Amino acid sequence: MLNVSGSYKGIWRTQNPENGSVRFPDFQNSMGTFVVELSSSTTEIHGVHYVQGHILLWDGMYVKGNDPQLLQMRMEGVYVWPFRQLRMVLSSASEADFLKVDDSFPSNPYHLLGIFSLQVLQESPRSHPHTRKRNGAVMEMSKTCKVHLSTQIVSAIAGIFYFSYVDMRLNFNLTDDHHAYQMRGSIESPMIEDEGECFPSIAINATSVNVEAYYTKAVNYTLMVTFISFLQVLFLIRQMEHSSTQSGAAKVSLLMIGQQAIMDAYLCLLHLTAGILVESLFNAFATAAFFKFVIFSIFEMRYLLAIWKARRPATSGEGWEAMRRELSVLYSRFYGFLLGGILIMYELHSMLRYILVVFYAFWIPQIVANVARDSRKPLHPHYILGITLTRLAIPLYAFGCPRNFMRIEVDVGWCIGISSFLLLQAFFLLLQHYLGSRWFIPRKFLPEKYSYFRRIDRTALQIGLNGDNMVVDCVICMAAVDIGQRSSDCMVTPCDHVFHSGCLQRWMDIKMECPTCRRSLPPL
Fold it and tell me: In this structure, are residues 202 and 186 in contact, taking their beta carbons and an 8 Å threshold?
């Protein structure tokens, strides 16, 4: 026997738009979206179920603005299973009654009206009728108006049932649901003397929403986020090993790591909030939020601290008080940007896609820093490619997957744009890694670069004679450096100290200062 309990999403259309009723809500469109919540229970009559629930009719295909036109009504009737017929009487529901939970409604996901209607209609919380104030524009029908619903509810086999209204830009494809039900019928009211119809005849066409399939998609999404977070931790550890020295950490852009840390903090808060709102999915979303918390609070904040200390080597020798002041400045700036970004996104939530484009420009600070400092290979290629691909996974799922659990409308153009934008940044970084940080700038526009293989001013050196050769000691390896014949085997610093080329290059990978006099050294 078919159980009609559940949630149904569909569209309504007035059958005679030219004969509108003066008592019908002032909808601007002749078609719109509606959601039905049904709860059925068996009766003593075989094949007859008692059914009650709610129906919400929205004006138009999409909910727009903070106060959309909405009609809500209670329903009560019977479902005759042998004939697949649903007959119900509709009555106006005041907002107080609408918010009240009936004892007869079982406590299961099908009847969580406040949460599930929000997911089905893709509206923001502030526009949902459950959060609207008493003076909202929720319309009610007259008490003398009698409205009847007459539909058929039949089972639709997965992969067979498919219907669409192309002209209304609304498409329902149920090929991925295994227990779909189709509801087709009409809502109308009998004629009242001297008043005509109080409710015009409208045709309704809806399908059930498979909550189990929805939960499965949500769990699969959290597994994807958890796996991606694990990969990001591995790539970040690889990068931290690549720049473990003071010189290597100083080459990494503080803004680049900080921007990614803020993104992960937002994702942590977002998944944690989703888990709190949908209690049955709390464990799945909390796991994804935990991994994001580990990334930004442990690994990325630790890396930010290492970069901050590498940029200020003098502070490390001034004691704990100076270090504590520096840490306070770092953390206050980070959490200041974090809270400020939350306020900005709240006020500009309608421009979310443009805000995401700004967030996904996180490689640009590193590109600019490479050019400004002429840094040599600050980022590991695996880190560049790995972070680029993993960062694209969530936005491509949300805006590019037609069956994403968030039910966001697919935007292929935006997905191509954000992917091209981020991949172009990564490609530019890889070119800087292999061709040099300033490979694209003509030499005539570049500032003069110091040459470590310049001619040696021998009068400034304390030269010891060893036979016919002129030699000095390399203070790094304590071996002699023959400067009698100039070659690439020795390098001279701006302070006229001579070292073996290999010794000085390895030293500069650790510290950018002269081993003899501690003077700052220019980049190679």
Answer: yes
Give the sign of the dihedral formed by CA 25, CA 26, CA 31, CA 37. negative
Q: What is the model's pTM? A: 0.63
DSSP codes of every residue in 428-453: HHHHHHHH-TTTTS-GGGSPP---TT
Encode pLDDT of 399-408 as tens digits: 999 888 887 8
**CATH 3.40.50.1370 applies to domain 448-524:** no
In tens, the pLDDT along 176-187 reads: 444 578 889 988
Q: Model confidence at 286, in pLDDT bands (50, 70, 90)?
A: very high
Token pair listed for 494: 């701006």
Choice between 62 and 202, residue whose per-residue pLDDT is larger:
202
Q: What is the mean pLDDT of the chain?
A: 76
Structure tokens at 474: 């390399």
User: For the segment 34-85, what is each residue's pLDDT rounded down to a tens digit?
Assistant: 888 888 888 888 888 888 888 888 776 544 444 456 778 888 888 888 888 8
Residues of the chain with CATH 2.40.128: 6-209
CB 271 within 8 A of CB 289: yes
Architecture of domain 6-209: Beta Barrel (2.40)
Where in the sequence of the chain do the CATH 3.30.40.10 domains occur?
448-524
Q: What is the rounded distance in angstroms from the CA atom of residue 292 to the CA atom of residue 491?
A: 46
β-strands 480-482, 70-80: how paired? unpaired
The Cα–Cα gap between 99 and 254 comes to: 49
- 267, 287 Cβ separation under 8 angstroms: no
DSSP 357-395: HHHTTTTHHHHHHHHHHT-S--S-HHHHHHHHHHHHHHH
DSSP 150-191: EEEEEEE-TTT-EEEEGGGTEEEE-TT-SSEEEEEEEEE---
| 291 or 6, which is more confident | 291
Encoded tokens for 296: 């930004």
In eight-state DSSP terms, residue 124 is -
Which 8-state DSSP code applies to residue 296?
I
Residues 6+ apart with CB under 8 A from 72: 54, 55, 56, 57, 93, 98, 129, 138, 140
